[in-house]
Amino acid sequence: MTVENLWKVYGDQTVLENVSFDVTPGSFVALVGPSGCGKSTFLRMMLGDEAPSKGRILVDGVPLESEPSPDRGVVFQKYSVFPHLTALQNVMLGLEFAGSPFTARLFGRARRTARAAALDMLQCVGLEQAVRKYPAELSGGMQQRLAIAQALVKKPKILLLDEPFGALDPGIRAEVHEILLRLWREEGMTVFMVTHDLSEAFKLGTRVIAFDRRRTRPEEIKVFGASVTFDLKVDGKTIPVPLPALAAAQ
Amino acid sequence: MRRLINRKPDAAARFVLMLLPFLIVLLVYMAASEARLAVNPNDKLLPGWTTISAAIERMAFLPDNRTGNYLMLNDTLSSLTRLGMGVVIATAIGGVFGILQGLIPYFRATFNSFTNVLSMIPPLSVLPILFIMFGLGEPAKVLLIVVGITPFIIRDLALRTSEIPHEEIIKAQTLGASTWQIILRVVVPQMLPRLIDAVRLSLGAAWLFLIAAEAIAADSGLGYRIFLMRRYLAMDVILPYVAWITLLAFTLDLALRLFQRAAFRWMYRGNGR
Question: Interface pTM (ipTM) of the complex?
Answer without folding.
Answer: 0.87
